[in-house]
Amino acid sequence: MKTSEELKKIVQNKYSEIANQDGLSCCGANSSNTEVYNIMTDDYSEVKGYTEVADLGLGCGLPTQFAKIKKGDTVIDLGSGAGNDCFVARHETGETGKVIGIDFTEAMIKRARLNAEKLGFNNVEFRQGDIEQMPVSDAIADVIVSNCVLNLVPDKENVIRDIYRTLKPGGHFSISDIVLVGELPTALKTDAEMYAGCVAGAIQKEQYLNFISENGFEKITIQKEKPIIMPDAILDKYLNPSEKEQFKKGLTGIFSITVFAQKPTSDLNIEDLKTESQSNCCGPVNTKRCC
Questions:
Q1: What is the signed CA dihedral for 256, 211, 70, 178, rounded to 10 degrees?
Q2: Whole-prediction pTM value?
Q3: What pLDDT, on the 0 to 100 scale, is given for residue 274?
Q4: Mind listing the domains of the chain with CATH numbers?
């Protein structure tokens, strides 16, 4: 099993390659394989503020469409890539708002900044950094969005904690990501390319939602959910015919979900919340989980 730092380096190298080329996407896609290229992406073409040049086809949802962004909001996009969701968010927050894109791949930051300069968007900035430790101050954001990025991070709970830190009390997030119901075949789970391609790093849907509730968020809602069907072009790379048939007949589901959650207006300490939850059983961290 690779270490967290090794996995991050794999992702960073893969997304640097994508940033410097056209026609690449998740799961090792290329321009000659449109079936793979479109495996997860949603169509942005009807979304206001969409800028085609910034869309590298790396998402698995439309989080900014569900993010309830208001004029004047400060918005952070986690894993901002070439700036696609940042520019959609900028359309919603307007010239009086601010959008901060965070990405830990230098080539992506350079590409996004070039796109912003060409578009003349002076209230959109891009910062290089790890989304487990965002290069922003506490309680700065009204809204946080992210599109198919948390599954690329080895310690997803750390990201959830930092989202809580950086949101203002009463602020919220809308995040699209890949989750699982059931277990992936070992060949898919352990492959580095599949990790960089948004699948092998996905965790169980229930665990994903628990990370959110256990770290103090409320009003947790699945805004959109869609199944991801793995095409034969991918499965044939990792599974023999018998394994592929078994996988297709199995109970494993791969889903894209868009999740909304809000930080409480009273910015309570997370450790205090957890202690109170354990002592009272039906505590404020997850009021649905009772004895």
A1: -10
A2: 0.83
A3: 47
A4: 4-278 (3.40.50.150)
